[in-house]
TrEMBL record:
Keyword Transferase in annotation: no
Descriptive protein name: NOL11 protein
Keywords: Activator, Nucleus, rRNA processing, Transcription, Transcription regulation
Nucleolar protein 11 N-terminal domain ranges (all copies): 1-285
């Protein structure tokens, strides 16, 4: 989510359905999934086709998968039995016993207790609720009955492990949260116990009642509840709330006007929930609570016990950038990143005040920023600087004569910012044709949307050479392989190191182009100037998803496609001159980046390239060069065994002796 790029996408065949959430086996770095209730799939990140992944058909329906560190995945069957994944894989068709009878599993969780996995799940039958505790490695099962609550039914469960007992929290339909203590040790011969429920929290405040749908435990004194807040004579509104269970107070809430799915997840001090059609990620931090903080009377931020405080307003104006549409590849982007601060320090307060100085002269602003950037970094400084950049960008949009380029460059170059923290910056740089700022952003931002990457590429290819020669650009990525002074002079270059020689391969392509009528080859000199080359290199380094970039690339004009392909072909040949296929210089493109972009362009414009007469020679050269390299590497593969044998003989030979040997490779 930090990079806002899809790292992988796998799908089952048409007609198949994933029937429980996928988990990751942290021990083997594998994914484990179940589709159609009984078919188990296991695959790794590098696997592309899920249909070719490991498959095992089980003898019973699976309810849920759980993954625990240092224990491996656990499989909970609908019949209530639990197996570790390794035991199950040893005999996939083994008999699965029925632990429950005519009961439906409503919730399950897994914990580690004394280095042993424990699975706890709740079931329902005819309005009665039960709790099961299983230790699969000890083959023990304990069953408890939940104390019934009049005129109320459990809606959601969550649990945590503490002091060798599981604390189960129940969110009930009477707008209350109850606590149930579940012992992990029980005499097997003891009859079924009824576990009493104690009231933990009443979800009402000042006449308003929260109709909760899900809850998560944050720490021993705080829970988060997602639901709909209702009040007399007012429309219900969905919101996320944090409650202090120790003092029975509502700590903070966040309205969610676009609606949610009713599900809430919590992982590593971050909330995850769907808000409308986007995934929202909210950071939080809970510290030791005190009564003064709980009732809002805390005056001194240095008091030893302070409560959690979520700053909902940080970057609240950032627009959602990607919808969770029903498609095979989904790009999940954070709607907003809301940081937690207890009390703004002096550095943060000054930075926030800068964003309000709409009339501050540029030189004063630069000095102020330089002074503040030298101060010690605080946890929320990055997000605050993003707000400052956004404020400067908005001021520039409102005033066409105002453009603090030095300030913006200073902020981008000295801080690890991202596109999502200042989404208006690159749009402003495109509008002002600030090539240098765009180049730096492409080099440093890990989460640039494909639409913006394409806009930068189109700008870099369309801008005039005369304008570029007057533009300041970082040339570190090209200075080592493009001769700036002699670029326009004809330099004859013959590439033979990696298997390509023009004289040897004239017969490899059916397209014959007379030498005397041909212009200088694209492989002999760079088809673009060093400034444009450096900008294009920044695009090559930018992260992207092919699924989202291809539709934009199809809009690139044909002449710009040819120019970009000629430059990529030039880089490809330059890489092939080196044994390690690596270009010299800082942030130079890699052979994989070059090849990926060539394939992208040809996929987007292949028909146009075939029809255009001016692309004929370029496609011919590409075809000839690639075929020559394929043949060269094919020949290398043929002698691979002989080369390994030679390497083995070198190890056996006495290094102190001198000899001349002639080895014949047949």
């Amino acid at each position: 989510i930090s990079d806002q790029k899809p790292l992988g996408c796998w799908s089952v065949k048409h007609g198949q359905v994933l029937t429980c959430p996928v988990v990751c086996n942290v021990e083997t770095h594998e994914y484990v999934a179940v589709h159609d209730d009984r078919v188990l799939r296991i695959w790794k990140n590098e696997d592309i086709n899920l249909d070719k992944a490991f498959k095992a058909t089980l003898s019973a329906d699976v309810c849920r998968l759980h993954s625990l560190p240092h224990a491996g995945p656990l499989v909970l069957f609908r019949a209530g039995a639990v197996r570790t994944l390794d035991v199950l894989l040893a005999a996939p068709q083994q008999d699965i016993e029925n632990v429950i009878s005519e009961e439906a599993i409503r919730w399950s969780g897994a914990f580690m207790e004394s280095q042993q996995p424990v699975v706890v799940f709740t079931t329902e039958k005819d309005g009665d609720f039960f709790v099961y505790v299983q230790k699969p490695k000890q083959e023990s099962v304990h069953k408890y009955r939940l104390e019934p609550q009049e005129l109320s039914q459990p809606l959601s469960f969550t649990a945590y492990l503490k002091d060798q007992s599981v604390t189960l929290l129940c969110l009930c339909s009477n707008d209350c949260v109850y606590k149930v203590l579940i012992p992990l040790q029980q005499d097997p011969e003891e009859e079924e116990q009824t576990l009493p429920k104690s009231l933990l929290l009443n979800l009402s405040v000042s006449g308003s009642v929260l109709k909760g749908t899900s809850l998560v435990v944050l720490d021993k004194d705080h829970v988060a509840v997602l639901g709909s807040l209702t009040a007399p004579d007012k429309e219900p509104k969905e919101c996320l709330t944090i409650w202090n269970t120790k003092f029975q107070t509502l700590q903070t809430s966040k309205a969610l006007p676009l609606g949610t799915s009713g599900q809430l997840w919590c992982y590593e001090e971050k909330f995850f929930l769907t808000h409308g059609k986007v995934l929202t990620v909210i950071m939080y931090k809970c510290e030791t609570s005190s009564l003064a903080a709980a009732v809002g009377k805390l005056k001194d931020s240095q008091t030893p016990g302070v409560t959690s405080c979520v700053n909902w307003n940080t970057l609240e104006d950032e627009e959602p950038v990607v919808s969770l549409q029903s498609q095979e590849s989904v790009d999940l982007k954070a709607e907003s990143r809301m940081n937690v601060i207890l009390k703004p320090g002096p550095c943060i307060s000054e930075l926030h005040s800068i964003s309000l100085f709409q009339d501050t002269p540029t030189n004063v602003l630069e000095n102020k920023l330089r002074h503040l950037m030298s101060k010690t970094q605080t946890p929320d400084l990055q997000a605050t600087i993003g707000s400052v950049v956004t404020a400067l960008a908005n001021r520039s949009k409102a005033n066409p004569k105002y453009y603090p380029q030095n300030c913006l460059l200073q902020l981008v170059e000295t801080r690890d910012l991202s596109y999502s923290l200042c989404p208006d910056l690159m749009a402003l740089a495109l509008e002002r044709k600030d090539m240098y700022l765009l180049q730096i952003c492409l080099q440093r931002f890990p989460d640039i949307p494909e639409e913006i990457t394409y806009a930068c590429l189109e700008t870099f290819l369309s801008i005039s050479e005369a304008h570029l020669q007057k533009t300041e650009v970082d040339l570190d990525s090209v200075i080592c392989y493009i001769d700036v002074e002699l670029r326009n002079k004809e330099v004859k270059t013959e590439i033979v190191e990696n298997g390509f020689s023009e004289e040897l391969d004239q017969d490899m392509c059916d397209t014959n182009i007379p030498k005397e009528t041909r212009a200088k080859s694209d492989a002999e000199s760079c088809p673009v100037g060093p400034q444009r080359a450096a900008l294009l290199n920044a695009v090559l380094h930018s992260a992207y998803s092919e699924t989202f970039l291809l539709p934009h690339l199809k809009n690139l004009p044909a002449q710009q496609v040819i120019l970009f392909l000629r430059y990529l072909y030039y880089l490809y040949v330059k890489c092939s001159e080196k044994v390690n296929t690596t270009l010299p210089g800082v942030r130079s493109p890699t052979i994989n980046q070059i090849m990926d972009w060539m394939c992208l362009l040809l996929d987007a414009h292949f028909t146009v390239m075939v029809i255009l007469p001016e692309a004929k020679e370029l496609l011919s050269n590409l075809h000839k060069f690639v075929r020559a390299q394929v043949r060269f590497y094919s020949e290398l593969n043929k002698i691979e065994g002989s080369l390994r044998e030679l390497q083995r003989l070198n190890h056996l030979r006495d290094s102190q002796s001198y000899s001349i040997e002639v080895l014949e490779i047949i």
